[in-house]
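Hi,

Apologies if this is the wrong queue. I'm a grad student, and the batch job for histidine kinase from Dyadobacter frigoris produced an output file that my downstream script rejects. I'm not sure whether the problem is my script or the file. Here is the sequence I used:
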Amino acid sequence: MEFFLLTFFLIQFIRKRLETATKLPEWDKLLIGARYVSIGLMAAYYVLDESKLVSWLWYPFVGYILWIIFTKDEFKPVRSLAQGSFPFIAVALFVSFAELIVPAKLYRQYSDYLVTAKVFAFIWLFAVWYNSQKQQRLLDKEREAQRVKDEINQAKKEALEYLVTERTIELTRQKEELQKTLDELKSTQAQLIQSEKMASLGELTAGIAHEIQNPLNFVNNFSEVSVELCQELEEEIQKTSIPDADKEYIAGIISDLSQNQQKITHHGKRADSIVKGMLQHSRTSSGHKEPTDINALADEYMRLAYHGLRAKDKEFNASLVTDFDPTIGKVDVLPQDLGRVFLNLFTNAFYAVAEKKRLNKENPAMPDYKPEVKVITKLFAGKLYIRVIDNGTGMPESVKAKIFQPFFTTKPTGQGTGLGLSMSYDIVTKSHDGLLDVSTVPGESTEFKITIPVNG
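Support response: The file is valid. Your script probably expects a header line. Output copied below for reference.
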């Protein structure tokens, strides 16, 4: 009975302590088999009326279990308990041998001592087991405490890493915002410096233009008078009685002089137009915005620009298309300034279609071209939209990028100052807080887009 309790208890303790069912499944099967063997031996012992043979079979069975425990590294944690069973096994083995070789009378005389020794050995085994369990519980508590501590430390570490990451992201965002603000400040500073330079340049330009205009007027006036005087002189020479050869020689000189004066007049007028453009470009409008019929203003300047070109080229014709929004009514603008914008845009549009017609006339492959200039107005969402569209020559991207720069022009010398669109851009963007943009398809069309905010 004692060996049954020993083996059964030892097997159950090993399975529980080592968790063989999950961690050592192969050994768990063997331990369960050993448990059934111990049950079988216990049953055989009582069935066979406490057979001595069955009693001796316990020793190799227990010895085999102990041999596995002390030879296999998997069972190292339970060796201390196995060692606690040695006194009990030694006493039981001594009792069994004494029962075989000691006379029955002498054995019975000391049997009580032997039983007492066996009981104390069993108590010792129980004490060892209890101490082992106590140590194991303390160890488990320490491990659990360490695990909780590790989890807390890991949670703190993760929380700290999260805070560090969040702080890094926030610092990076603030750095980017500060960098963006710094870049904007630098850009604004550069714009202010450029604006100040342009303002100073505008004042200087206006002053120079004013100073140039008076002597330029004298040059133009006297050159025109000189042409007339050359004509009169040529007529008077014909009335004299000097030889014809001399008359022809003098007439040739007068003709050269007249041509020189005409060239002076031509280039003087060209310089005069540039000066007037500079004055217009540098002039700051001091007028107040007035309620203006935008549709009527656009139509008036469209026809004015058309007839202005027709006066220079009698053969020029173009279709004038209007698509006016009748709901616009009157809008507060600077009518004279906006009229100059319309005049510049329409003049450029008619020039572009006239140039394309001339090129197509020289190219027999495209005889069916019909010039067309279109103006569209629309009031939507508190903004006034104006579009001036032509089906003329268009412009390449290189020209489009510079189209609003002062003194930039694509027209031949004498036909453009390069200030019209620059002045128009300033009027729309600065005087009306609007936008002036251009889109173009080279060789096909150009569209100028004006957007002006309208107070409700």
